[in-house]
Amino acid sequence: MSESPATARTQAKANRRTVLLDSAAALFAQRGFNGVSIEDLGSAAGVSGPAVYRHFSGKQALLGALLVGVSEDLLAGGRAALAAGHDDAATLRALVAFHVDFALSKPDVIRVQDRDFDSLSTEDRRQVRILQRAYVELWVEVLGRLYPDRGADMRRLQAHAVFGLINSTPHSVALHGRRPGASGARPVLEAMAWNGLAGS
Amino acid sequence: MSESPATARTQAKANRRTVLLDSAAALFAQRGFNGVSIEDLGSAAGVSGPAVYRHFSGKQALLGALLVGVSEDLLAGGRAALAAGHDDAATLRALVAFHVDFALSKPDVIRVQDRDFDSLSTEDRRQVRILQRAYVELWVEVLGRLYPDRGADMRRLQAHAVFGLINSTPHSVALHGRRPGASGARPVLEAMAWNGLAGS
DNA sequence: GAACTCAGTTAATAACCATTAACTTAGCAT
DNA sequence: ATGCTAAGTTAATGGTTATTAACTGAGTTC
Fold first, then answer.
1. Is A7's CB less than 7 Å from nucleic acid strand D?
2. Cβ neighbours of residue A66 under 8 Å, at least 6 residues apart?
3. Distance of CA A108 to CAs A165, A167, A171, Å?
4. Residue A5 belongs to a domain
5. SS3 of residue A139 by DSSP
6. Residue B2 CA, nucleotide C30 C1', distance (Å)
7. How far apart are the C-alpha atoms of B107 and B16, rounded to whole Å?
8. Among candidates A156, A192, A198 on the partner chain, residue whose Cβ is nearest the Cβ of B158
9. CA–centroid distance for B154 within its chain
10. Where's DNA bound on this chain (chains A, B) (predicted)?
């Protein structure tokens, strides 16, 4: 889209920005948005304090960039699963596999997203809501093709429930410091999601 | 246990205390522990500001009372389900039914418990952890009798996943202001939990 | 290489907020 | 009735913190 000057300074700036976002995700996941100071955010990224304002207009804007990014990634991944052109059952399995991978590989942002959503600015909250809704509707649509007898409200409730199921590992990790059996968790969560959605 | 003076003043104090706890649950659920001031907590209960210190030694202690209470209630309910003397399958259904009822009737405390756990004092955190672990072990034990081929780690992971599934409604409510079809959510969540745990 | 840009720094500034102090008053016991 | 207890009030107090100001210096451009 826009031209990249590709000079050393812009590179350094881009790097600093992603380091800021990554360390912010870890800090927010651990202590919550209001439990982290701008000083904390800066020093976790190797700079101190107000330097953060060179990259984001404020603390809330940093959270916004983080959560909008996550929501976009989730939606893009979900769309890719649908675009792969499988039959409906395989598409659902692809959605489940994608979401499980996402939750296991980025537990921090998962936790921040449903913990600090309310700390977003009005505008960021609106945008995240739109992206999240679109992601949910992907699931609702596939479920509707697979189970035409279920109403849209029920399918939406089920989609949320499956997200809760899959996103539970970040929570149990955060609560108990318990490492889930590394990769061992993946097949268990996938099977539980399929069976939970299949109905009796 | 201890004698109840039963005078008007102690009654009023007990009432004020429960009002404080209830409104604190609502406020914490909405804005998070660090997003609520002592002034907010007091005025939500009809008194203003430092009066809270007549009932709790501080903000953190109030959170502690709230979460220890929830954890005790959960454990008591789980023990009741086991003590009912059903066979293992019926006991599991009783556990699921109890947890679904709890999550649907007290979404606020559910949300606070897995959002603001880290804001507890060291001692309260220890106590809540012990109670939570005991509750999880009830599930792990029943699952072990029903599915002896599954290891304890897998059963624990599955218990946590089912909690995430059932606790998802507080989250979706908080995120979207979406009222789940009142009582309509209960059977759907119960069926998903059973099927998720049943394995293929 | 001279002018400029801009990411960084450290020092204000201004709220906000948990907790404590000092005081008031309604209820309880003798 | 009278003194005491304790729940409540409004004013400090002290610390934390988001944000802005003023300044510095390395990298970029011409």
1. yes
2. A21, A24, A25, A28, A109, A112
3. 16, 11, 10
4. no
5. helix
6. 24
7. 22
8. A192
9. 23
10. 37-56
Are B167 and A164 an interchain contact pair (Cβ–Cβ within 8 Å)? yes
Report the CATH number at residue B179. Answer: 1.10.357.10
Provide, as residue numbers in chain B, all residues whose Cβ is less than 8 Å from the Cβ of A200.
191, 194-195
B186 located within any domain: yes
pLDDT digits (tens), chain B, 200 positions:
456 678 878 888 999 999 999 999 999 999 999 999 999 999 999 998 999 999 999 999 999 999 999 999 999 999 999 999 899 999 999 999 999 999 999 999 999 999 999 999 999 999 999 999 999 999 999 999 999 999 999 999 999 999 999 999 887 765 565 565 556 999 999 999 999 999 86
In a domain, B15, yes or no: no
* Cβ neighbours of A87 (radius 10 Å): 9
Measured CA angle at B114 (ends B70, B198), to 5 deg:
90
Q: What are phi and psi of A84, to 5 degrees?
A: -65, -15
Q: What is the residue whose two structure tokens read 């599930």? A: B139
Range of the domain at A72: 59-198
Looking up tokens 């006991």 gives B91
Place of tokens 């009142």: B182
Give how far A70 is from chain B: nearest CA, Å.
15
**Protein residue minimizing CA–C1' distance to C5:** A9
**Number of CB pairs, chain A paired with chain B, less than 8 A apart:** 138
> How many structural domains does chain A have?
1
* Euclidean distance between CA atoms B35 and B29, whole angstroms: 10
CA–centroid distance for B25 within its chain = 11
